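User: I need a structural model of Guanylate kinase from Marinitoga hydrogenitolerans for a docking pre-check later this week. Nothing fancy, just the predicted structure tokens so I can convert them on my end. Input:
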Amino acid sequence: MTKGILYVVSGPSGVGKSSIIKSAMSKLEGFSFSVSYTTRPPRPGEVNGKDYFFVDEKTFNKMIENDEFLEYAKVHGHMYGTSKKYIKEKINEGMNIVLDIDVQGALNVVKKMPKETVLIFIAPPSYSELKKRLMNRGTEKKEDLIIRLNDAKWELSKINEFDYLIVNEELKEAINQLISIFIAEQIKTERVTEHLGRYSFFKIEEE
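Assistant: Understood. Predicted structure tokens for Guanylate kinase:
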């Protein structure tokens, strides 16, 4: 069985990652969305177990002690983590996993699972546009907004460490680009070579 791929999609807060990922995945089969754990409070409309697993700091710290995370990081004052067991089981079953996490977490994941991981960075057209989007979203307090904008400067400096870059200037185009990346990675020769023997055009007899 061909192993699945771990697609790690990252970028600054407010860049539109969730909308792009959900739209792209709705058009493809064989992909599963990984749900992260977090200590931050849920936003309006978010569902526990679907968008995130919302836990308190005591529970999160206990999971760290038990070595249950593939990665975890403190972002914008809250903890986020990815279940190690869930990811590895799904990958070995041949399922493609899409992980929407912060830049710091993405770089930690690829260090632990370099062969299975594809890093995708979604960026805003400009820093000023990102600031505008965050302010229009209206879900953060002023102090949280300042933290996210300061973090974005560091996150944008890490673009060159990712495999792909999508600039979310036009939503439909960004969605199509993500779909193209998902499909292209499925047929890379390095991923399918071990299964090529079943195709007749590789069974060439000497004359």
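Before docking, keep this in mind: The chain has a mean pLDDT of 88.
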